[in-house]
Design a protein that fits this description.
Elements: H1 3-18, E1 25-28, E2 34-37, E3 43-46, H2 53-57, H3 92-97, E4 102-105, E5 112-117, H4 121-133, H5 140-159, H6 161-169, H7 179-187, H8 201-210, H9 225-232, H10 241-252, H11 267-284, H12 289-299
Antiparallel strand pairs: 1-2, 2-3, 3-5, 4-5
Length: 315
């Protein structure tokens, strides 16, 4: 890269930093990671610097390590995922999601922080846990980091990434009462979408294996599979989503209509497809359906509508 290109790149980074939003709330998670809530509602965790995830995980940041910066090189990764041993465990979807840091101003008003959407933390932790499980981590400091990733993963499993950030920053006390309604609105289509093949065959192949049901292409699946699929997917995407999709299907009064046809093309259907990919990976790692459900509950717990009297402080 010549001098002109370096100057152009530096100017692009400076522009991003200058326009970075200032968090409305900030704090430290119970695990010591710095986190914040941005004006648009995104929950983010700081990835580097004091109390960043790299420091919390004990990942040493050397001067020769590739930078993770705005408008950076294609395929760049945050420091916590740069170890060679981790690369086979990073999915293409995760690589794409973390390719660009979220830049926001430090609450002190001095400098900026590079962060990551907090909802990606479980997947990030899973990379370390999978590598450790397969015996790919041999260096002592990598094993130490894996244990710290497991501690964070367990904390996330208890309350979820968003709730953990809200608790740490105090944002949970100020959440709007209609936040859930706004969330659900993003998932529901304005009108029924045309039917397209939605469920990947590999998903059902793994589900059949875990339920000891012989799998055949184009097979007629057991009727109870519908309940299982609803629990595995819709019940874990948003509170009350399954009930609302059923209601929309009833209102449409179209014979043969499927619930997934009432998911919005963007947020709803896109999340469903991503879930299928991640859930199928979880299935492959399990030897029984009970083992799969236990793991699924940690990663994507069933989301319930909070009680009315506790709504302001709901997780």
């Amino acid at each position: 890269m010549d001098k002109k290109e370096r100057s152009k790149k530096a100017a692009a980074v400076s522009a991003v930093v200058r326009s970075a939003p200032k968090p409305t709330h900030s704090g430290l998670m119970s695990t010591g990671v710095s986190c914040a809530v941005l004006p648009d509602g995104r929950r983010v965790v700081s990835m580097q610097g004091n109390n960043g995830l790299a420091e919390t995980f004990g990942v040493s940041v050397g001067s020769k390590m590739p930078k993770w910066v705005p408008r950076g090189d294609a395929g760049q990764l945050p420091y916590v995922l740069q170890a060679t041993e981790l690369q086979p465990y990073i999915t293409d979807e995760l690589r794409e999601a973390i390719a660009e840091p979220i830049v926001f101003k430090n609450t002190s008003g001095v400098g900026s922080a590079y962060g990551l959407d907090a909802t990606l933390l479980p997947e990030l932790c899973e990379v370390w846990l999978a590598a450790e499980r397969d015996g790919a981590l041999r260096q002592r400091h990598h094993l130490t980091t894996a244990r710290k990733a497991e501690a964070l993963y367990k904390a996330l499993a208890r309350v979820g990434a968003v709730a953990l950030v809200d608790e740490a920053t105090g944002y949970q006390k100020e959440r709007e009462r209609d936040e859930l309604a706004k969330l659900l609105e993003q998932f529901i289509a304005k009108e029924m979408r045309p039917w397209v093949k939605t469920y990947p065959p590999e998903f059902f192949e793994e589900l059949c294996r875990l339920r000891d049901v012989p799998f055949k292409a184009n097979m007629r699946r057991p009727q109870y599979f519908g309940h299982l699929v609803n629990n595995i997917t819709y019940d874990r995407m948003a509170p009350d989503l399954r009930a609302i999709l059923k209601e929309e299907r009833t209102k449409a009064n179209k014979q043969g209509a499927k619930m997934h046809q009432f998911l919005s093309e963007g947020v709803g259907n896109e999340m469903l497809q991503k879930r299928f990919s991640g859930i199928t990976t979880l299935m492959k790692a399990c030897d029984s359906y009970d083992e799969f459900l236990t793991l699924l509950e940690k990663v994507h717990p069933v989301l319930k509508v909070p009680e009315a009297e506790d709504h302001d402080n709901a997780e």
